[in-house]
């Protein structure tokens, strides 16, 4: 049987997506698709319990509602191919807005990717000298949507000669779980190390060390596969070591050394000393 060739186009994705919407709303189908993709990517590397088991359960429920794994898997393959062919785009975000799935009550009016790319180029270029002197930097988008701003930053870093997989940590935050998962999916497929937090940036902001955020009540974290690369794991281990034992290894201040000259006063018959 001949295998159907996947080209990674929006038209190709929409053809499969419409087949899944025969008996359900497009919003319900989209939410289940994004959750299934996100759970697949997260559980491929992050086995931490109980989150791993919860994601497995959610994935099974989503696939059941979608009528089986075949069409969701094809949608996933199309997204993978699209970002492989052209990483410099917001593929899911553009589809999301074209399907009119944006929630205007949450302010979901995604910034066009070309605007995000322009902002990334200006910001990084203005700070290029400072960035080149650092071992690594972090980029934060507190209202990430599908991740267009961070995707643009990753591509800009690449064009400037930075290895963003080892030198840049991508931190994202959004109040909407579905769009946060969209951001997570795209960052993961583009090889961006970092995490996406589902939380209210204003009333429940992400806190703690940027390498190891504190997971507070009302927050849900999605860590990209490249967050677990050895470079980033080593940096987290060093942070833990410094937090626990740093005070023991801080260099002590050396006392000020002065030259002292001794001489004998023959008239008084005694030793005297003076600083040089």
UniProtKB/TrEMBL annotation:
Gene Ontology annotations of biological process type: DNA restriction-modification system; methylation
Root EC class: transferase
UniProt keyword terms in alphabetical order: Methyltransferase, Restriction system, S-adenosyl-L-methionine, Transferase
Residue ranges of every copy of the DNA methylase adenine-specific domain listed in the record: 106-206
EC numbers on record: 2.1.1.72
Gene3D superfamilies: Vaccinia Virus protein VP39
InterPro entries associated with the record: DNA_Adenine_Mtase, DNA_methylase_A-5, SAM-dependent_MTases_sf
Reactions the enzyme catalyzes: a 2'-deoxyadenosine in DNA + S-adenosyl-L-methionine = an N(6)-methyl-2'-deoxyadenosine in DNA + S-adenosyl-L-homocysteine + H(+)
A single MF term (Gene Ontology): N-methyltransferase activity
Family matches, as PANTHER family: SITE-SPECIFIC DNA-METHYLTRANSFERASE (ADENINE-SPECIFIC), SLR6095 PROTEIN
Protein name: site-specific DNA-methyltransferase (adenine-specific)
Lineage: Bacteria, Bacillati, Bacillota, Clostridia, Lachnospirales
